[in-house]
Request: fold
Amino acid sequence: TYPPVAIAALDTLAITRATLRTLTPTVTAPPGVSAAVRFVVADSSVAQIVTQSDEAITLRGNVPGQTTLTTTSIANPTVQRTTIVRVALPATTVTLSPAAASVALGSNLTIRPTVQTEPGQSTRVTWGTTAPTIATVSAEGVVTPQRIGQATITATSEANPAVTATAVITVT
Reply:
């Protein structure tokens, strides 16, 4: 027979991609009985164990999605607690300056992104243009006119690719 052991852990845990979260479940065991636990993540592509001990675990959110974390008593393996782990993209906003501008053929314009996101997340953006025959954009946000017309330049958050900002560029 196994000793009476109880595990108290979170029912759900929300973390963001690329962040770390440490959990320490409360284990109640009689005197002389180990309170050590083992942790198993069902889908390590969603969240992975970075470090673990007999008492705590540190998880990293890898990709948006949901998985389960099972905490099992070592002294009594019939006692388990399951935590639903939800990994989300970080809250992010991107703004561009200028948001609209005119630029003459033969000159360049630098667009500056401002990215607000959660601590530890990337503030970088990737750039794109709707009309590369009118204006191209470099990895640094430098717009180079190609011919007269209008192009929309898009900056996409690296931390959360669902978040973008645009600048309308008129080439004169």
